[in-house]
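LOG
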Amino acid sequence: EELKTVVQRNVSDGVHADSLTLRGFLFLHRLFIQRGRHETTWTVLRKFGYNDNLQLSKDYLFPPIRIPPGCSTELNHAGYSFLTSLFEKYDNDKDSALSPQELIDLFSTCPVMPWGPDVLNSVHTNEKGWITLQGYLAQWTLWTLLDIQRTLEYFAYLGYCGSGDDNQLSAITVTREKRIDLQKKQTMRNVYQCHVIGPRDAGKTTFCQGLLSRTLEEVQDIAPDRLSRHTISTLQVYGQEKYLVLHDIDVHNITDALMPNEVQCDVACLVYDVSNPKSFEYVARIYLKYFSETSIPVLFVANKSDMSAVRQDYIHQPVSFCHKHKIPPPHTFSSAVQPKKDIYTKLATMAAY
């Protein structure tokens, strides 16, 4: 009787003719699970012949979501709160990082382990190479931006449930169209994509890893197959925490065309090697062909500035080229020492404003 009273108090049609309705029955078991009494629900399931094998319907795994052109997907407060509580649950030694075994345990309810070793070079890790809470939330942010269906699927496997009858969509925000943000000169987005483009050997990989405060020496110790094309971290933009995603885009030849999805971004970073006289021509041509007529902000990065700069074999030198096209002068960068955050903050600020 006490249970029926609880159901009646929370679900208007949970009890009928002194008996639990389906809605009442489901609410009751949700309550058991939320209060940690999982075995009560499993006992009922086994009583009716069910075993531990659970298959979730596609409707449940992939609730329909509409993402208009120019919009993006981000986690909201409910999503981050769920992920944080999950992290804290499996961080058994409370060291604010997940060991390989703790990570396996966290994803034990999923069909496969979704994160490979490259993830550890996409986000922040501790001195042991274990993913920290900051890195863990950043990786989920990256997933949600690039592959929302995968986030929805794994939220379902991990047991996300909002309030009431909410599904995984209550953890997601679909942002306003970028065009409207530009018109209004303000944005509520928290995640920005920066495409890092340049010739081979210009130092794009070390520049991207610099977002994670890694030096050239540290990057050289990473096996190529363990490097990711994406790195992501948080930065302060005018006092607000924002995520910056760097996407390393490698084009082997100056005549190779960029695909539309390789051009479209919130800010473009064109990287050249100051010690190579042929390097700037490549990025100058990329700018003229793909970005000069767009509203996408562009920053040229004069990489390897610890080396002797040489005159570039191009009609304009980098500074005069930027002046002519009314874009910021090249920003010098070197990963020979601890990379400075200012260049990444500048990119995030250009993307936001």
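LOG (cont.) second protein
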Amino acid sequence: MSITRPFQPHLIQTAPGRYEARLSGGVLTMEMHREEVPLPELCDFALRRNARRRFLFVSRVLGRHMPTRPGHLRDAAARLARKIAAGNGRGPVLFFGMSETATTLAQAVYAAWHELGCAGLYIESTRRRTGGSIAFEFVESHSHASAHLVHLPSPEDDPEGVFQKASRVVVVDDEATTGRTAAGLAAAYAAWRGIPVEAMRVELAVLARWNPPQGAAPLGEVTIHTLLDGAFEFRETGVFPEAPAQVAHADVQSNARCGARHGLSRPQEMPWSVKANPGERILVLGTGEFGYQPQLLASALEGQGATAWVQATTRSPVLTGGAIGHSRTFPSLTGEGHPEFLYNVPDDHPYDRVLLCCEDTLLPSDHPLRQVPRIEILPLPDSLPS
């Protein structure tokens, strides 16, 4: 993977396999055990407003806090899909994409898995209710918004009944340290089915696996697929602002689009028809958990000769500095009350166009994102002819 980016990583290589990131409030040191892709091509770093973990691994291929070229995201997803396909697990395979950060990567991994001739069901955890039945809930302890919901697929969503009988579960996330979140998801799913976790093969696919030098909670029988393995240590050197209150509940409104929240037996398709000029620089901007179809649009625009990037808004409160050069804060795009953020898209951004892809709610006429220079609001996916 060779990556050219408008953002240079805030990393110093101090020795082979050893790196240091100096941030305004602390120093993060890393010792890499394995780099399938060099660390500076996959990760950058920032500080976040979260007392549970002060720093943030900012992925350079995830398309969340930083823009990424769609081909770079697809390449990382394909690498993980090949690792999953090489496993020996048998029977129906159930993919879980972790909200919100990893939803784009997770469905891209599932799509690459499909391209390898494999099958299974893909479903995303969510913090938004659709009005459909909830199968189970679990908690991501280090997240700002900790509660996750998993909806129950209908027979139309899951014609083979994979959700009810999967013997192999693959959790896709951006990175893992202790593995508690994946273990908690697997335990909640097994409890819903009334079976022991040991009755399933549980796998975790992540861009990076980190083990703090002090040691991490054991992952037990979970199989790990990753592009990076390493250890880190963070030393605080400054005073951090007070963290915002943790959001311990999911949104209560039942207006979210079903989509991947109710399960997919095949990857989603790109719903928009957008023309691009050769050489145009276009940022395709997803919103919250909605990132995979915007990624497909970015790929399609590059097929027309444009240079495209994909990114998405997020709930994650991150401090400016390090990988975060600019920050916008605004009310939730879905009107559900929580604050939302867009990083690294200043008023003097380098794009000819910014295409905003809303999932199920168009922006109000006075929403602050409408003030982003050269932004265009695309139609809602479900309003377009199929």
